[in-house]
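task queued by scheduler; priority normal; single chain, no ligands, no partner chains; default sampling; output format set to C-alpha cells
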Amino acid sequence: MTDTPAISPDIAAKNRTWVFEEAKAVVKRLRRVGKGQVNTPEKGYVLFETGYGPSGLPHIGTFGEVCRTTMVMHAFQRLQPGIPTKLICFSDDMDGFRKVPGNVPKQDMLANYLGMPLTGVPNPFDSKHPSYAHHNNATLCAFLDRFGFEYEFLSSTECYQSGRFDESLKLMLTHHEEIKAAVLPILGEERAATYSPFLPISPANGKVLQTPILEVNPDDFTITYEDEDGSRITQEITGGKVKAQWRADWALRWHALDVDYEMSGKDLKTSADISKRILKILGKPNPAGFHYEMFLDEEGKKISKSKGNGLSMEEWLTYAPHESLAYYMFQRPTTAKKLYFDVIPKAVDEYITFVDKLSEQEPAKQLDNPAWHIHNGHMPEGRQSPISFSLLLNLVNAANTQDREVIWKFIGQYAPESTPENTPFLDRLVDHALQYFKDFVLPGKSYRKPDEREAKALTSLADALENMDSGLEAEEYMSAVFTAGKENGYEKENLREWFQALYQILLGQDQGPRFGSFIALYGSKETVALIREHL
C-alpha cells in the first residue's frame, strides 16, 4: 500500500464525517480532564475500548465495534498526532455462565456449570485451552489478528484476580448506597429490595452468586452474605473475591482503566447512562462514545443470534472480502441497516468505486471517502478490480462453471492487463463469486422461455452480434441491444421490459448488469451462443 497525501490536523479538524466527529469528542474529553488543555493522560496514552462477552463466539457485531472504534482512533491520531493511543479489547470472562448456547458441543456437561465464571467453565471444544472462556478469547484474538487490527487483549478475570480493579472496587464500596440509588429506578420491586453492585464469588463452589448482601463494611472493605449452603460469609471485595453487577462493572472498568472512548449498541443506551452516573459518583468524567443502531434481517426484524435470522459474519466473509464488510460498517452507523445476502454485491462494488476515487481526490475530500478510513489513509496499490462484483457474478452465472481458470479466461479477454498476480483483490473476488453463485444464486435460478416478440428481438440481437467484432467497447454492444429491442416493439416507455426479458431468459434472474458491459466481458460470440441456446 502507498500513503495518501499528508493530512494536517487543521484539515482533519474541519472534516464532518461521523468518524472525525467522534474523534473530536475524545479531544473534548481530554480538554475537560486537562482543564482546557489537550495533553497526554497520566496513563501515557488515550484509551479506546471495545467489549466482548465470551459467553458466545465472536460475531458480526464484534467485528463492527472493533472496526468502527479503530476508525475513530485513527481519526484521533490525525487530530492529535503527538498523543499516543491504545485500543483494548476487553473480555468480560468473569461473568457468570447463565445459559448454555445452542451452537456449542457437550451441552449436558456445560449445564452442570451454570453460575460459574466463564473462565471456570470447562472447554467443550476440541482445543487445548483451559476453559470455555479461554477458547472463546483465543478465537476472538485470532479473529482480530486475521484482519490486522492493532489491539491489546484484556481479561476481566485477570483484572479482578491480579488486583488491578481493587482500588476502584474499594471506592465503589465506599459509595455503595449512592451507586444502589443510581440503579434502583430501573429495577423491579423484588430485585430492588436486595440489589447490591457486588456479586460475591462463593468460596465453597466458585460460583458468581446472585445473593442479597447482608452487610457492607467500608472500614475493612468486606461484605457479608449468605452462601448457597446457608452459611453466613464475610469476605473481602478485593483479589477476585467479588464481581461487580454488569452496569456497575462497566463503570468500574471505565474508572480503573481510565477509558477515554467506548461505543455501544443502541439497545444498551439505558444501561450505559446508568454506568455513566456510577462513574460520576466515582469521580471521573464519562468516556466519549455513541450508540450504534442494530442490524435487521430482510424483513426488517432485529437480528438475533438465537433465532439465526440475518447474515452472519462467516457468511459475509465467505461471499465477499472483509474490506466490503468494513465499508458496510462505516456507512451510517446510527441508522438501522438490513443485513442479508442481497446487500453484499452492492457493498463490494461501492467499496471498489471509492478505492478507485481515492487517488484522484484532494486531501480534504479523501477524508470523506470511506476507503480512506478503511485503510487508514493508505491506498491499495494498483486498481482493485476492472470489473464490478455484480458483473462478475453474472459472468459466473452465464458461464455456468465452478472453474476459476475458465472465469479468468473471460477476464483476460476483457481486461488483458489483469492477472491473478497483479490484481489480487480481483482474484479474491473470483473465488467469492464462484461460492456466492453456487450457494446463493444457483438454488434460486429460474429460466423462462421467450414469447414470440422476445424470440424475434433475441434473434435480431444474435444476428447483430454475429456481425460485430469481439473486444469492442461496451457502449457499442449496448447500442446493438437497444436497436434489437426497438426494432421489435420495445419503445422508450417499455424498454425496461426488454432488459428484464434478457435477464430472465438468458440469466435466470429478474435483474442484472448493464447488458453491453456483460457482452464485452462474456464475449460477443459467446453471447450469441448463449442466446441461440435459450432460443
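post-processing summary
- The two ends are 48 Å apart (CA to CA).
- The chain is about 50% helix and 10% strand.
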